[in-house]
Design brief:
It contains four helices and 28 strands. The chain is α/β, with parallel strands linked by helices.
Length: about 250
């Protein structure tokens, strides 16, 4: 037997398993399957064709003492797989919502804190823990047991080694590991798998040489990149990410 609030909006083709709790002000899209023991809390929006595995808790109130019951949401896109015991908190007054995009895999015991923004096509391995207001861009991969400090950003196509403790921003295409977290190079295999050609890969490698191998501080490196390397979408993607960083970027390996 499940408890489903009469105020929840559930598509006819959605499947609700036994012992599921679905609170008021919830929307669940077509083809989504919510399995045994999952809890879908007030303010949650789940898109189409998602799979919510047993005992996941989606949209619970934030673990933030500043939260005073304001009406916020937890928004989940389409085609997501959310495995056992994943917890995703809804937003606070800071951003009013927590967002998980589409086509993501969140493995067992992942925690996504309040006001996080997760992009699309992410792989988040078992037991990763994301504090409040973390941002993860498209196609990133985060290894199991990684801990990510609040307000940290992970750029697109980043690969994070399992067990990494992250407190600084990770620019796009970086390969991140060690303790404390450092840039070990670019995510070469990931870029090839996603269809980047040799010229694009060489361009990103050259940008990273400026960032980490020329004995320049971050501001000097960015100025040199813009002055000496041709303008391109990839160059601007990396430079703009770093220029808008509030926490600073991870250091390079020595």
């Amino acid at each position: 037997m499940s408890f489903v609030s009469p105020e929840a909006q559930i598509a006819e083709s959605a499947e609700i398993g036994p012992f599921v709790t679905i609170e008021r002000n919830v929307v669940i899209g077509e083809g989504t399957r919510v399995m045994s023991g999952a809890v879908i809390c007030e303010g949650t929006r789940i898109g189409k064709n998602c799979r919510i595995f047993p005992n996941a808790v989606i949209g619970a109130v934030p673990q933030d003492l500043k939260f005073v019951g304001e009406e916020t949401t937890c928004e989940i896109g389409d085609n997501n797989t959310i495995r056992e015991f994943v917890t995703i908190n809804r937003g606070t007054a800071s951003k009013n919502r927590t967002v998980v995009g589409s086509n993501n895999l969140l493995m067992a015991y992942v925690h996504v804190g309040h006001d996080c923004v997760l992009g699309n096509n992410l792989i988040i391995s078992n037991a990763c823990q994301f504090a409040g207001e973390v941002e993860i861009n498209d196609f990133a991969v985060v290894g199991g047991g990684s801990l990510v400090h609040q307000f940290t950003r992970i750029g697109s196509y980043v690969m994070v080694q399992g067990g990494t403790r992250v407190g600084k921003d990770m620019p796009p295409f970086a390969m991140v590991g060690r303790d404390p977290a450092t840039c070990e190079g670019i995510n070469l295999i990931g870029m090839k798998r996603r269809g980047f050609n040799e010229q694009q890969i060489a361009e990103v490698q050259e940008i990273y040489r400026y960032l980490y191998q020329r004995n320049l501080n971050t501001t000097q490196a960015l100025n040199a990149i813009e002055a000496e390397l041709p303008q391109s979408e990839l160059r601007d993607k990396i430079v703009n990410f770093i220029r808008t960083s509030q926490r600073g970027i991870i250091r390079g390996a020595k």
